[in-house]
């Protein structure tokens, strides 16, 4: 089971390396960005479950990165990491939409505990009675792999279909690139191409779009990939 993909935004390579090593040892996947614009690009690619965000960065600083994510409707949990420990900074961090704040140097155990808590809060809270998520005109239960199509038929989804939908669903409306979908669902180094993803999307549209020829929920983002909308797109 995938534990979560964490974007580590840190310009000091030694610290970034240390943090990434620690997280990977715990079973997380890490992506590193050394400055603010790279962090925003990584977020747009999708598939990130949590952001460890240094405040002092070249280019846009951590607070600005977080503000811009939130302006774009991205609610991925953000844990600020910073050497500065002044009350106004804490306030600025929270004002920018951050979820938690850890002052450097921090203890490994505290970092891991906070990440765990944020991921748990984000994934399972506010508590929903089931893992049933609306997908297009139907729904999917991510726990049992049961689904109901837009036409009202009960179906069981294959593992890869479930994986693609879960990834799109977790992105909460943000676009997810075809390469990211391939990496996450099929794994690196497999003999698949972005065309494989397109074929899966076509199949999912047949199941979940009221009018598969005119998709309004599983939408193509030209040059970027796909995104899943909860309400009909115009
Ligand atoms: Ca820094």
Q: What's the gist of this structure?
A:
The chain is an alpha/beta fold and 234 residues long. It is 41% helix and 20% strand.
What keyword list fits this structure?
234 residues, alpha/beta, Rossmann fold, Arc Repressor Mutant, subunit A, 2 domains, 5-stranded parallel beta sheet, 20% strand, elongated, binds calcium ion
What does it look like?
By secondary structure, the protein is of the alpha/beta class. It folds into 2 domains: 118 residues, 3-Layer(aba) Sandwich (Rossmann fold); 97 residues, Orthogonal Bundle (Arc Repressor Mutant, subunit A), CATH 1.10.10. It has 8 helices and 11 strands. The protein has a 5-stranded parallel sheet, with helices on both faces. A hairpin with a 3-residue loop joins strand 10 and strand 11. Helix 7 crosses helix 8. About 3% of the residues have low confidence. Bound molecules: calcium ion. Calcium ion binds next to loops.
List the topology elements.
Elements: E1 5-9, H1 13-25, E2 29-33, H2 36-45, E3 50-54, H3 62-71, E4 78-82, H4 87-95, E5 100-103, H5 108-124, E6 132-135, E7 138-141, E8 146-148, E9 154-156, H6 159-170, H7 178-186, H8 194-208, E10 218-221, E11 225-228
Parallel strand pairs: 1-2, 1-3, 3-4, 4-5
Antiparallel strand pairs: 6-7, 7-8, 8-9, 10-11
Bound molecules: calcium ion.
């Amino acid at each position: 089971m995938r534990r979560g993909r964490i974007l580590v935004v840190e310009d000091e390579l030694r610290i970034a390396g240390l943090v990434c090593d620690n997280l990977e040892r715990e079973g997380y996947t890490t992506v590193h960005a050394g400055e603010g614009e790279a962090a925003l690009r990584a977020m747009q690619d999708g598939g990130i479950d949590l952001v460890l965000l240094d405040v002092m960065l070249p280019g846009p600083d951590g607070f600005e990165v977080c503000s811009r994510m939130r302006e774009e409707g991205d609610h991925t949990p953000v844990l600020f990491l910073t050497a500065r420990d002044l009350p106004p900074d804490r306030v600025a961090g929270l004002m920018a939409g951050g979820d938690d704040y850890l002052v450097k140097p921090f203890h490994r155990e505290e970092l891991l505990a906070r990440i765990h808590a944020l991921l748990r809060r984000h994934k399972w809270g506010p508590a929903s009675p089931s893992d049933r998520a609306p997908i297009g005109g139907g729904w999917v239960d991510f726990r049992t792999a049961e689904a109901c199509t837009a036409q009202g038929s009960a179906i069981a989804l294959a593992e890869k279909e479930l994986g693609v939908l879960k990834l799109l669903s977790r992105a909460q409306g943000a676009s997810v690139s075809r390469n990211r979908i391939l990496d996450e669902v099929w794994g690196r180094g497999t003999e698949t191409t972005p065309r494989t993803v397109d074929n899966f999307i076509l199949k999912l549209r047949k199941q979940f779009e009221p009018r598969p020829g005119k998709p309004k929920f599983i939408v193509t983002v030209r040059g970027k990939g796909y995104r899943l909308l909860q309400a009909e797109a115009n």
